Amino acid sequence: MASSSFIVLPSTAAASACLPPRKPVAGAGKQGRSRLLCKCEATSRGAGTGDDDDLVLRRLDRRDVLLGLTGVGATGAINLGGLALATDDAVLATCVTVPVTDKVIRCVSADGFQCPGVYRPEDVVDFSALPPPNGPLRVRRPAHLVAADAEYVRKYEAGVRMMRDLDASGDPRSFKSQAAIHEAYCNFHYKVTAAASRTPEIDFDVHFSSIFAPWHRMYIYFFERIIGELIGDSTFALPYWNWDAPDGMMLPPIFNNASSPLYDANRDQAHVTAVMDLNKGPGAENDLPLCTDDACVKENNLSVIYRQMAVDTALQFHGNKFCAGGTPGSPGSLENAAHTAVHIWVGGDMGVLGTAGRDPVFYSHHANVDRMWHLWTTALGNDDFLGTGTGGDDWRDTSFVFYDEKRRPVRISVRDVLDAGRLGYTYEEKETLEWLDKRPKPATGIDRSAAQPGVPAALSFPVALKKGRKEYVTVERPEEAWASGGSSKKAPEVLVVDVTIDPCEYAKFDVLVNVPKGQEARVGPQDTEFAGSFENLPHGGGDGGGRGMGRLKLTYRFALRELVEDLGCGQDRRLDVTLVPRAGEMVVVDAVRVELCN
Ligand SMILES: [Cu+2]
């Protein structure tokens, strides 16, 4: 059903790890890391103008490469798309796959930021050498239900209060030190050493790669153990914010008591007692005008969660492996969807990566992110090790050092944390997993005969997104997909969108597939045509202020296998893609393509 009003881009051949095949590219050496100061201030520029576009594009370092290869102005969309891919190949070739360990990353105290929990290397003990947890499994329960257990809430509050009372500079278990761990690892205070990256030291971040899920599992594991130690209860388990269940789609009340140590006064006060909307940005009206009541918002939320969980491969779920050599980062659906939306919804400290760990609800939010991972491998029966994209052994050998409840620096690796049971905890499931049954259905309100051929084509890549201006592109599907009428779970079809963003800016855009021009407002998260959203949780904030961050290149994959099946377009050679910008002044889309992910 491709209409001629969309620009047509070629597909790439099916490739492993969702990346195009490698080929040598002249001029690749011109790729530089442009460093632009990131002030992390709200931008106040007006609606998009041509000048704004130029400004955004000038900050796009890949463009230097493109200009070096050919005149951008003289090339059409197809050539530009091809060149953008070729440039990606050059970047891929520089990917260094040294496993991230405490030997190759180091925290740098600078710009007012003090690295928390400094330790002497000779004091580090391996987690695997410590006695395994004994006693019953610690059971993490839904936070909205533990309110009825006054004894539990009292103990939890006592533990957090004791953490807050510990000496912030002398005890790595203090609440302030614990919060600073997240800031250190997500505001680019850690550097990958030159030896490991074979380049000058580069920034390290636990987001935008398959490190996201295991690192956060480690982080809240030790946080939980510290509380248990302080209150003298080794069975203590964090409550999880059950935001994937309709009854949990609100800030759990135990966090909204101003006299409790679980309180954070900086949260968005308009949201602390409202039903959470995973499709709404800060300060914005609901982006999707289809909802007028809470029940509808909750249904939309369930669709968002269905989409993040119904991905077939570890690469889609966890994102790319971390590459020290400059390959674009890639968050998985676990990170990019509900996780980011909940941070944004809470706002305040939670709304910026640098300060997120200062809000006690962070640890319950991430307990649910962790539970989503747990469910993906258990209830949904998926395999973390599908393919090689998440880094295989590099991933399992990735390790970090955290202080444990006994104030010992402990080296813990990804392979130590793949099974929650081996860490001695589990999740109590009280609510049914309603999202499991929320596979989106084709929109009923759109007129499919209303395509408007003849609308002049206007899109060439890279393109700077502007709120209020939708972008239309038609992409070709891999022959393997259309020739067999669709794709398989083993090699599912995905829509790959390459973006360059300002890491300090909140940014969001929705992606629609096969929606005739002008009918976008008739399609919402419950509809098949809504492929999903890309959303960036801003870096910055905190003591270091997020200074010195450059532009960030990311790749995100939108699942297409079920979408194509449900729209009955498995034999079509092309898909019409609409990008709907929602927030952000500095988002550049570098390429859009369809690949088979295996
Ligand atoms: Cu988070």
Structural account:
With 598 residues, the protein is an alpha+beta fold. The chain has a domain at 7-95 and 442-596. 27% of the residues lie in helices and 15% in strands. It has 15 helices and 17 strands. The chain has helices at residues 50-58, 61-69, 77-93, 143-146, 150-165, 175-186, 194-197, 212-230, 294-309, 314-318, 333-346, 361-377, 392-397, 479-483, 561-567; strands spanning 7-9, 105-107, 125-126, 138-140, 190-192, 202-204, 399-403, 409-413, 425-427, 463-464, 471-476, 493-501, 507-513, 530-536, 552-559, 574-583, 588-596. The protein has a 5-stranded mixed sheet with strand order 1-11-16-13-14. Strands 10-17-12-15 form a 4-stranded antiparallel sheet. It has a 3-stranded antiparallel sheet with strand order 2-5-6. A hairpin with a 5-residue loop joins strand 7 (399-403) and strand 8 (409-413). Helix 5 (150-165) packs across helix 8 (212-230). The longest helix has 19 residues, at 212-230. It is globular and about 65 Å long. The two termini are 27 Å apart. The chain binds copper (II) ion. Copper (II) ion binds at residues 339, 343, 356, 366.
Strand-residue fraction? 5-15%
- Give the CA-based shape: globular
How would you characterize the largest beta sheet? 5 strands, mixed
Amount of helix = 25-40%
Q: What oligomeric assembly is this protein in?
A: single chain
